[in-house]
């Protein structure tokens, strides 16, 4: 596979270059350089692309991998995730190719997802729905994981720890990064 063929596959599948970069664990500009021929793909990157696109020649088989992009605070606002720390098998083929996972840090959502569990986020699903769970970012770039509730609109912790507070949109402006769709945990 070469850059133009990979670009064609990305377009045909309705993927984005940023989603493919996230899947490969690289910065989007690094992928862009690889696609234009300024940088060569590593053997591992090319193998991962072959597996992802279902092209013969990929070593191993199995489900598409979802990148775990770092820790998400289930508590106070915290600096957002930056790097892929590992990959997990995709447990649901209905998730978009841009889906990613975050690892829970904190106890403000311990009734839903405990510290150390992974939550898969669908970045194309940002419409707020009462009772659903979201990864959100404030105006300072800090992120957290909470449940959205209506009337009045708010983001609530789901915690056994009473110290965690509800976030009201008027107090802290925020952006929805995506809806948390699945919880993945190790036994």
In brief, what are we looking at here?
This protein is of the alpha+beta class. The protein has helices at residues 3-13, 17-24, 28-36, 43-53; strands spanning 65-73, 78-79, 86-89, 100-105, 118-122, 133-138, 142-149, 154-156, 174-184.
CATH architecture of the largest domain: Ribbon
Q: Please tally the helical runs, counting DSSP H or I stretches of 4 or more residues.
A: 4
Radius of gyration: 18 Å
Poorly predicted segments: none
Q: How many DSSP E strands? A: 9
Secondary structure: helix percent: 10-25%
Q: Indicate the proportion of strand residues.
A: 25-35%
Please give the largest β-sheet. Answer: 9 strands, mixed
Structural overview:
There is one protein chain. By secondary structure, the chain is an alpha+beta fold. The protein folds into 2 domains: 3-53, Orthogonal Bundle (434 Repressor (Amino-terminal Domain)); 65-184, Umud Fragment, subunit A (Ribbon), CATH 2.10.109.10. Helix content is 21%, strand content 29%. Helix 2 packs across helix 3 (28-36). The protein is elongated and about 55 Å long.
């Amino acid at each position: 596979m070469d850059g133009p063929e990979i670009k064609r596959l990305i377009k045909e599948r309705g993927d984005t270059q940023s989603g493919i970069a996230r899947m490969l664990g690289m910065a989007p500009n690094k992928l862009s350089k690889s696609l234009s021929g300024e940088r060569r793909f590593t053997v591992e990157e090319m193998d991962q692309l072959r597996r992802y696109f279902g092209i013969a020649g990929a070593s191993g088989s199995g489900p598409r991998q979802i990148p775990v992009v770092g820790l998400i605070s289930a508590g106070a606002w915290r600096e957002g995730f930056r790097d892929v720390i590992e990959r997990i098998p995709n447990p649901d083929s209905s998730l978009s190719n841009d889906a990613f996972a975050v690892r829970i840090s904190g106890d403000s959502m311990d009734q839903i997802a405990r510290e150390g569990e992974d939550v898969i986020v669908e970045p194309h699903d940002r419409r707020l729905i009462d009772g659903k769970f979201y990864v959100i970012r404030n105006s300072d770039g800090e992120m957290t994981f909470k449940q959205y509730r209506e009337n009045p609109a708010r983001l609530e912790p789901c915690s056994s720890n009473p110290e965690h507070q509800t976030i009201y949109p008027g107090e802290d402006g925020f952006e929805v990064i995506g809806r948390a769709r699945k919880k993945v945990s190790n036994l």
